Amino acid sequence: EDQVTQSPEALRLQEGESSSLNCSYTVSGLRGLFWYRQDPGKGPEFLFTLYSAGEEKEKERLKATLTKKESFLHITAPKPEDSATYLCAVQAEGTYKYIFGTGTRLKVLA
Amino acid sequence: GAVVSQHPSRVICKSGTSVKIECRSLDFQATTMFWYRQFPKKSLMLMATSNEGSKATYEQGVEKDKFLINHASLTLSTLTVTSAHPEDSSFYICSAHKLAGADTQYFGPGTRLTVL
């Protein structure tokens, strides 16, 4: 069964304290892996799409990487405005549907 | 860009009434849109896949007669919650899949439904 697991469930960081969020997945043929950011009471905001193992994408303080079993979202020198829930989703071959993980709630303290 | 809007953003209704939520892709065409439901501090639960010009495909356990979906054009899908009850209160989010290019879904801002 296709499945996505995110860890940790919640993370508190001091401003400037770099860390990584994990997204482990099992899927019968990966079409794509997606990272989103969601603020409370709002829809998810697209961050990255990764398609194959070894691929990396960067945007400001965020960097996403992909292996055959997991993806990491690295946050370098985070700021309080990076506080949000980060969602990972995978898309299996032959479908446009996403399978979402349960998310990591990140809180960055000033 | 890839902007998706939802209307209304918030709705309060009485039990037994029907509520319609609109999802529009503003700057691209979307043959496929998705409707999700999200409970507090939980992840998104896919309710149905909406295809332009054809019937929606519902996920297991989702009542299609209660959650009516219409995808009338390449930029508009609607979700109607019929005979709403308090247990239907939730945050409903739509997403749109771009017709061409990457497989990315772009999400609307969500609609908070409260049924009294």
If you had to describe this structure to a student in words, what would you say it looks like?
The complex is a heterodimer of chains A (110) and B (116). With 110 residues, chain A is mainly beta. Chain A is 0% helix and 59% strand. Chain A has no helices and eleven strands. In chain A, strands 2, 4, 5, 9, 10 and 11 form a six-stranded mixed beta sheet that branches. In chain A, strands 1-3-8-7-6 form a five-stranded antiparallel beta sheet, with no helix packed on it. Chain A starts with a strand and ends with a strand. The model of chain A has no long low-confidence stretch (mean pLDDT 95). Chain B is mainly β. Chain B has no helices and eleven strands. Chain B has strands spanning 4-7, 10-13, 19-25, 32-38, 44-51, 57-58, 67-73, 76-81, 90-97, 105-107, 111-115. In chain B, strands 2, 4, 5, 6, 9, 10 and 11 form a seven-stranded mixed beta sheet that branches. In chain B, strands 1-3-8-7 form a four-stranded antiparallel beta sheet, with no helix packed on it. In chain B, a hairpin with a 7-residue loop joins strand 9 and strand 10 (105-107). Chains A and B meet through strand 4 and strand 5 of A and strand 5, strand 9 and strand 10 of B.
Q: What is the element layout, followed by pairings?
A:
The complex is a heterodimer of chains A (110) and B (116).
Chain A: E1 3-7, E2 10-14, E3 19-26, E4 30-38, E5 45-50, E6 56-59, E7 62-66, E8 70-75, E9 84-92, E10 99-100, E11 104-109
Parallel strand pairs in A: 2-11
Antiparallel strand pairs in A: 1-3, 3-8, 4-5, 4-9, 6-7, 7-8, 9-10, 9-11
Chain B: E1 4-7, E2 10-13, E3 19-25, E4 32-38, E5 44-51, E6 57-58, E7 67-73, E8 76-81, E9 90-97, E10 105-107, E11 111-115
Parallel strand pairs in B: 2-11
Antiparallel strand pairs in B: 1-3, 3-8, 4-5, 4-9, 5-6, 7-8, 9-10, 9-11
